[in-house]
Amino acid sequence: MSKVHDMVSAKEIWNTLVLTYEGSKEVKRNKLIVLKGQYEMFAIKDHKSIQSMVSRLQVILNSLRSLG
Description:
The protein is mainly alpha-helical and 68 residues long. The protein has one domain (10-66). The chain has three helices and no strands. The chain has helices at 10-22, 25-40, 50-66. α2 runs antiparallel to α3. The longest helix has 17 residues, at 50-66. The protein is elongated and about 55 Å long. It starts with 9 loop residues before the first helix and ends with a helix. 0% of the residues are buried. The model has no long low-confidence stretch (mean pLDDT 84).
């Protein structure tokens, strides 16, 4: 937590942590674009089980949900 060590206010610390772990609005927007593309292009791959397909889809959906 060296990034917040010298900060004085809780707001400064919070803003730094949000930016560090969630990214800026532009980063979030770019992540959403990539995830939306992955979702729209999602297809069953040859020689893959249904379980692995469901798992891949769940990762995409959870990532989309986490970004709002």
